[in-house]
Amino acid sequence: MRLPWGAPSFASSLAKGGIEQHPISNRSPRPTAHPPTKSPEKPPIHIVFPAPIVQNSRKGAPMPLPRDIANTGARPRTIADEQQQGELQVAWGHAMGRNNRVAKVFCYLSVMRAVGLIPAKARVAVSPSGLPVPQDFNAAQGNQAAHYLPGFVAISKPTENELLYLWDLVADATTREDIVALFRATQDLPPSYNRADSAAEGRVQLGPPGLKQFFQECCQYVVDQEPAHSPIAGRVLVVIARPVVAAAWSQWARKSILAYERASVGKDARVADHRPADVRMKPVTDLARGKFQEWTPADLKARVRDLDRTVHGRKNSVGEFQDQASFLRAYANVTNGEFPLSEAILNQIEARFGPKMPSWYEK
Fold it and tell me: What pLDDT digit, counting tens, does each position of 149-158 carry?
């Protein structure tokens, strides 16, 4: 998508400040991608702690982590694959899929903390080195498999000197597969989408944090909170702590918007570097000559020609960088402080860890 006349402005950022608690919405969840095909159970993979809390994929970072790809066959096609979607529509859908999964991870962390699978003072790591990255499918036809989530979660218990995948803490096979599916899920997209994701996810050397670190901080916040207790019996309630996950979501939404905006501004700055002098960024306004925001044929020709220019110090073209900046703005536009999951979904997650009804019980 190449729009030489500019791109839409950012959505208004959320109010800055500390973590706030908001009521959780009861509206229906946004549609997400199809669930990945289930794979045979695998034994837990352990590594020695300490390890880097946040794995960085930007310049100066370690080599990419190995992949644990669940399916080597072709990715199943969905109804969305048969529809003609604009590039910004795809970006909006990708961001909504990410936000839904982030919220679900917060919910799983909260209820697993309540049931005791995650102990107090446990530490959260996002994509630590030494653990393969879970992935559902390989990409095809020149695309890339873009993960929805900025990284996978691993847990270090305070009494053990090792990191475990979050799903390895769960005994039930179905629940374990549902959790790992959140982190495996990818979308088959052109490279510019994945590069936009990477620009917002990673931390540049001595630069500001990105989505990976924000994700880790929010997950750690959920784990650090005391589970809800019954005011009468004093027992821990096996429930998702609604105020906690809503507060974590509010923090994630505010900081992720900042990361998207920062990455988009960085893309625009790279494009502006060494731009030819005849490439105008704004139309001509000269009221004395009767001109108001006009582009001349020469102006338009120069802007179209500039789309194929290689960005200074990079391998990609100006057009590709402008696409990535537009995708990042689209990610910011669909992210807000309203919790994206319905109460029904929260109840389904809780039911996996709460008391089970007897086999003879029927609704």
Answer: 999 999 999 8
Half-sphere exposure of 337 (CA within 13 A, CB side): 17
- Residues contacting residue 270 through CB under 8 Å, at least 6 positions apart: 311, 312, 313, 314, 321
- Give the 3-state secondary structure of residue 294: strand
pLDDT surpasses 80 at 297: yes
Cα dihedral: 175, 181, 183, 188 (round 10):
-170
Encode 146-161: b = buried (16+ Cβ within 10 Å), e = exposed.
Answer: bbbbbbbbbbbbeeee
Query: Which stretches of the chain are DSSP H helices?
Result: 79-82, 87-115, 173-184, 191-201, 211-224, 242-272, 297-306, 318-333, 343-351
pLDDT score of 245: 97
Taking alpha carbons only, the member of 277, 223, 270, 266 closest to residue 107 is 223
pTM: predicted TM-score of the whole model, two decimal places = 0.74
Return the pLDDT at 291.
Answer: 75
